Amino acid sequence: MTTLQGDYEPSPSDWVRDQVAEYEASGGQRANTLLDTGWPIIVVTTRGAKSGKVRKTPVMRVEHDGEYALVASKGGAPEHPEWFHNLEAHPDEVLVQDGPAPVAVAVREVSGDEKATWWERAVAAYPPYAEYQEKTDRQIPVFVTTPKGS
User: Fold this and answer.
1) Does the global pTM surpass 0.85?
2) What is the DSSP code string of 83-108?
3) Which of 26, 43, 113, 138 has its CA 20 to 30 A from that of 17?
4) What phi and psi, each to the nearest 5 degrees, are found at residue 33?
5) How far is 106 from 44, CA to CA, in rounded Å?
6) Phi/psi of residue 141, each to 5°?
7) What is the pLDDT of residue 1?
8) Mean pLDDT computed over every residue of the chain
């Protein structure tokens, strides 16, 4: 099984902590949508930029040909989500779990035409992303993950 070494620090948010625990306990069979919306999520494991601790975050499932987009929207807030900083600080220590087991991935931020293509996929998978971008002055970053060894 693929894991990140170190202390796991669950989210301070109850629903995130509970969702990650249930998702992992069930191998992705339960707690695999955003609350009760029916929109699927994946669990992304990162290393904390400041703490160095292992962090796990549910993000919307935007998949294409085995790669995943990680959209740092934070609901259209003016600042990036915490996990954005974790990806920047430790891009080589990231796991994506979409189903029974996490997979080690390489992560890169995309721009230009590639970002536009992934943004279309993201909005198709989770339409509120379009509203989130309208709500904020910042350009919402999009990262793409590729399984390591592929």
Assistant:
1) yes
2) HHHHHHH-TTSEEEESSSSEEEEEEE
3) 138
4) -130, 165
5) 12
6) -70, 145
7) 54
8) 95
Is the pLDDT at 150 greater than 80? The verdict is no
**Chain-centre distance of CA 37, in angstroms?**
17
Taking the C-alpha atoms of residue 111 and residue 13, their distance in angstroms, rounded to an integer, is 31
91: left (phi over 0), alpha (psi -120 to 50) or beta: alpha
Percent of the chain with pLDDT over 70: 99
Cα 47 to its chain centre, rounded Å, is 13
Mark out the alpha helices in the chain (DSSP H runs).
14-25, 82-89, 112-125, 128-135
**Pairing mode, if any, of strands 102-109 and 94-97?**
antiparallel
Angle between helices 128-135 and 112-125 (to 10 degrees): 120
With the CA atoms of 127, 36, 16 and 122 taken in that order, what torsion angle do they form, in degrees rounded to the nearest 10?
-20
Structure tokens at 4: 């990140």
Distances in Å between the alpha carbon of 109 and those of 84, 85, 146?
10, 12, 12
